Amino acid sequence: MASTNTAKAFVEFERVQKSYDGETLVVKDLNLSIGKGEFLTMLGPSGSGKTTCLMMLAGFETATHGEIRLDGKEINNIPPHKRGIGMVFQNYALFPHMTVAENLAFPLEVRKIGKSEREKKIARALDMVQMGDFGGRRPAQLSGGQQQRIALARALVFEPELVLMDEPLGALDKQLRETLQFEITKLAHDLGITVVYVTHDQTEALTMSDRVAVFDDGRIQQLAAPDELYERPQNSFVAQFIGENNTLDGRIKELTGTTCVVELESGEEIDAVPVNVSNVGDRTLVSIRPERVEINPDLGPTAHTLNAEVLEFIYMGDVFRTRLRVAGRDDFIVKTRNRADQVRLTPGQKVKIGWLPEDCRALDA
Amino acid sequence: MSNTGPDAITGPTPDNAIRQADIAEKEAAGGDAAHAGPVLAADGTPLKQSLNRALRRQKLRALALIAPLLVFILVTFIAPIADMLFRSVENEIVEETLPRTIKVLEDWDGQGVPGEPAFEALAYDLMIAAELKNHTRLGSRLNYETTGVSSLFRKSGRRVDDIGEVYADQFIALDPAWEEPATWIALMAAPGWSAGEGEIPAAFEMRDGVAEVLPRTADMYGAFADVIRTEDEESVADEEPWNIVYEALYRDLSENPEAAIAFDGENAARLAAAAEAVPGFETTTMSEIFIDIDKDWGSNNTWGTIEAFSSRYTSGYFLASADYQLTPDGIERQPEDQQIYGLLFQRTLFMSMTIMISCVLLGYPVAFLLSNLPMRTSNLLMILVLLPFWTSLLVRTSAWKVLLQQQGVINDILVWIGLVADDNRLELINNQTGTIIAMTHILLPFMILPLYSVMKTIPPSYVRAAKSLGATDWTAFWRVYFPQSVPGIGAGCILVFILSIGYYITPELVGGTTGTFISNRIAYHISSSLNWGLAAALGTILLAVVLVLYWIYDRIVGIDNVSLG
Ligand SMILES: Nc1ncnc2c1ncn2[C@@H]1O[C@H](COP(=O)(O)OP(=O)(O)OP(=O)(O)O)[C@@H](O)[C@H]1O
Ligand SMILES: [Mg+2]
């Protein structure tokens, strides 16, 4: 599936499968290659197998089938402590009986690094996460965000080339999460490390990553850069999972290479870009982002428009959010920017809506 | 996703409400100076007062809820311990049984045998004690200190009846009226007091002035009247006084005949006549009589013992527990062959430690396994761990007897494998080895359970984190997992140690002579030798040792480092 950066793949999953119970596959045929210095995020709903993939990479779970390579070497049978992969856990996993400095010293001690060298590295790592004064504290004496910084510093202090993070910010509040998101990306970039990051917060995935792998049901549904993922979802799962999305059911009526006409259940017709539909008459799910819809559009005489009835008009400051009834569905959302000349709609009002054909994608049903 | 950490709860949980109330209370107390006046509640009462009222009701309700338990604990736990502490020093029996003797012995110099007054007082005390059947108890009590005293008292108690018979005969010969109870009542009783012929009379009332004229007689007759009334539940009107009363009368009359002659109560003439006649009476010496009963009365040791243990409280039991004894010459070490308690305490501590350590060694891997297995398997195995609790302790202990004896299963197997020669089978039972094996087995669950519950709470991510940081399995275990399981070890050790230090059934059954604990000795003193004072002293020392160890443990490991889960 994924084939970018194969020239210099640093981490590779090849045909990896995983089953815990011998009955169901939790990870089904995973192929993934991650370039050196890349920030790759695994995004997906709960239970989709993200943690499992991460654990296989870290060495805490064995792959049932397939090969995992790190820097060109197969690591399936190398125990975790010899893989040299840094890891940040969701619950931080800071050793409660050691001080912050002792926590950071731990990976250096087991690597038999001398005391003076060790202290230098610890100080540098603590400064890196702006926690220089906290070396003598116990983890329990730190706030959640501080603990997370320490966990990060500990994963980085022994200078691994690959760092894995499993929902590291999951337990923090929004503001703190945003600060740390920024810091983590900056650190990863500055240090040139490769990061595999697991989250199920899509904003986090989109803002932080070079590429995002969207997981569902043990498979990568799409692996792409954030903008690509948002604007050109490859299937209806991705389209619905990433960002807000309007969907309409219909059938392909005409299909001409790069455009198609879809007949909705209401009998109305719209233009769309065919993505994974192949035959006229196929059922399809048309996907369109709320901010790409225009109300009472001026698109030229040939463009298709749809009739809609305003159900709700919500003022949200920077945008207006309008809920419409379109083609028999009443969950169609339109977002319009709050401009001086923007008309404010009232519930019950009848309008026409439309969009550029390239913003509308006909996906698998 | 899940951000419900403890900090996330900011609403009014019950705890928070109490905490806030506390803060409010503190502020109300400390902040008064700053405010112009007390903060008032809505109804105008000071806020602090209405808060207190609200809290008081809560507190009372809470107290009412725990009251049954509190009472239960007080009655079944605190009270027995207090009683035990008291018994270990309590020694009232000597003073209560021999009050007159003790009083006389106060002036004794401790040399040789005390003088005639001491024997006389002893005769009075012993007469009353024998009637009340207290003298054997006293004998047993003093027998703990000096062997032979028990039989001395029993023997003397049997013959004390006859003391004074000589005088009784002479008085009656002088005037047969002395034989009549009525004569005595007329002489001794207060005019208004009625002997209540044939039924139990009211408490005896002495006639005014008699005690000055006839002090001994009044004393003994009063005692006699009380005993007849309370013990025999009869009337003095039907009873001839004890012989010893005649002896007392003789002494009184010969000591102070003038007073008797001057006596002006009822029967004064008869008393005067007796006073006149007394100098001609045949006399006896009390000390001779006693030494005749048992020559031990002529020994300094007997009297020394009585004197040494005459106070109401004694350190004697504690001295005995520490292999010392209180002799008339002061505190002395017990003879070599009787120094058993020090050894027993040492052995108890040593074996409890050994049992504790073997429980840790055996229990830790089991608990580790249990906490790392999937729930279903570990529950099943947990039942196996708990299985011993469902079997009688006696059955389990006896099973060990079968297994460990010289012709038992284990020896058979060892011989069969060839590890042990047939004529040289191991002695695994009726010694320390047997006790340690059986007790380790019995106490193992008490180690496994707290360990398990602590280990269960150690998230696997710690060990994973350690490994991802480069630690080998062993380093990850030793540096990260083990320190976090220490509270479980602490809890298990305290449980096992304290349980084993007081265990006694198992050592009794499999310990033989070398594998018994101090508790076996305590049990022996409670149920066989009936020396409860010594048992209490041993128990108190045991309690103190445990508390000291607990304190040391707290200093070294820290008691908040103990967790039952
Ligand atoms: N140790 C295990 N034994 C058996 N099944 C497991 C185990 N760990 C995970 N699973 C199953 O594997 C599937 C994938 O789990 P995984 O933890 O990888 O999900 P995830 O994508 O990380 O989800 P989340 O976002 O909730 O963390 C789930 O269905 C889960 O029930
Ligand atoms: Mg997960």
Automatic annotation (TrEMBL), chain A:
<dbReference type="InterPro" id="IPR008995">
    <property type="entry name" value="Mo/tungstate-bd_C_term_dom"/>
</dbReference>
<dbReference type="InterPro" id="IPR005893">
    <property type="entry name" value="PotA-like"/>
</dbReference>
<dbReference type="InterPro" id="IPR050093">
    <property type="entry name" value="ABC_SmlMolc_Importer"/>
</dbReference>
<dbReference type="GO" id="GO:0015417">
    <property type="term" value="F:ABC-type polyamine transporter activity"/>
</dbReference>
<keyword id="KW-1003">Cell membrane</keyword>
<dbReference type="InterPro" id="IPR013611">
    <property type="entry name" value="Transp-assoc_OB_typ2"/>
</dbReference>
<dbReference type="InterPro" id="IPR003439">
    <property type="entry name" value="ABC_transporter-like_ATP-bd"/>
</dbReference>
<keyword id="KW-0547">Nucleotide-binding</keyword>
<comment type="subunit">
    <text>The complex is composed of two ATP-binding proteins (PotA), two transmembrane proteins (PotB and PotC) and a solute-binding protein (PotD).</text>
</comment>
<dbReference type="GO" id="GO:0043190">
    <property type="term" value="C:ATP-binding cassette (ABC) transporter complex"/>
</dbReference>
<keyword id="KW-0472">Membrane</keyword>
<keyword id="KW-1278">Translocase</keyword>
<comment type="similarity">
    <text>Belongs to the ABC transporter superfamily. Spermidine/putrescine importer (TC 3.A.1.11.1) family.</text>
</comment>
<dbReference type="InterPro" id="IPR017871">
    <property type="entry name" value="ABC_transporter-like_CS"/>
</dbReference>
<keyword id="KW-0813">Transport</keyword>
<comment type="function">
    <text>Part of the ABC transporter complex PotABCD involved in spermidine/putrescine import. Responsible for energy coupling to the transport system.</text>
</comment>
<dbReference type="InterPro" id="IPR003593">
    <property type="entry name" value="AAA+_ATPase"/>
</dbReference>
<protein>
    <recommendedName>
        <fullName>Spermidine/putrescine import ATP-binding protein PotA</fullName>
        <ecNumber>7.6.2.11</ecNumber>
    </recommendedName>
</protein>
<dbReference type="InterPro" id="IPR027417">
    <property type="entry name" value="P-loop_NTPase"/>
</dbReference>
<dbReference type="Pfam" id="PF08402">
    <property type="entry name" value="TOBE_2"/>
</dbReference>
<dbReference type="GO" id="GO:0016887">
    <property type="term" value="F:ATP hydrolysis activity"/>
</dbReference>
<dbReference type="Pfam" id="PF00005">
    <property type="entry name" value="ABC_tran"/>
</dbReference>
Automatic annotation (TrEMBL), chain B:
<dbReference type="GO" id="GO:0005886">
    <property type="term" value="C:plasma membrane"/>
</dbReference>
<feature type="transmembrane region" description="Helical">
    <location>
        <begin position="349"/>
        <end position="370"/>
    </location>
</feature>
<keyword id="KW-1003">Cell membrane</keyword>
<dbReference type="InterPro" id="IPR035906">
    <property type="entry name" value="MetI-like_sf"/>
</dbReference>
<dbReference type="Pfam" id="PF00528">
    <property type="entry name" value="BPD_transp_1"/>
</dbReference>
<comment type="similarity">
    <text>Belongs to the binding-protein-dependent transport system permease family. CysTW subfamily.</text>
</comment>
<feature type="transmembrane region" description="Helical">
    <location>
        <begin position="532"/>
        <end position="553"/>
    </location>
</feature>
<protein>
    <submittedName>
        <fullName>ABC transporter membrane spanning protein</fullName>
    </submittedName>
</protein>
<keyword id="KW-0813">Transport</keyword>
<keyword id="KW-0472">Membrane</keyword>
<feature type="transmembrane region" description="Helical">
    <location>
        <begin position="62"/>
        <end position="82"/>
    </location>
</feature>
<feature type="transmembrane region" description="Helical">
    <location>
        <begin position="377"/>
        <end position="395"/>
    </location>
</feature>
<dbReference type="GO" id="GO:0055085">
    <property type="term" value="P:transmembrane transport"/>
</dbReference>
<keyword id="KW-0812">Transmembrane</keyword>
<keyword id="KW-1133">Transmembrane helix</keyword>
<feature type="domain" description="ABC transmembrane type-1">
    <location>
        <begin position="345"/>
        <end position="553"/>
    </location>
</feature>
<feature type="transmembrane region" description="Helical">
    <location>
        <begin position="486"/>
        <end position="505"/>
    </location>
</feature>
<dbReference type="InterPro" id="IPR000515">
    <property type="entry name" value="MetI-like"/>
</dbReference>
<feature type="transmembrane region" description="Helical">
    <location>
        <begin position="436"/>
        <end position="454"/>
    </location>
</feature>
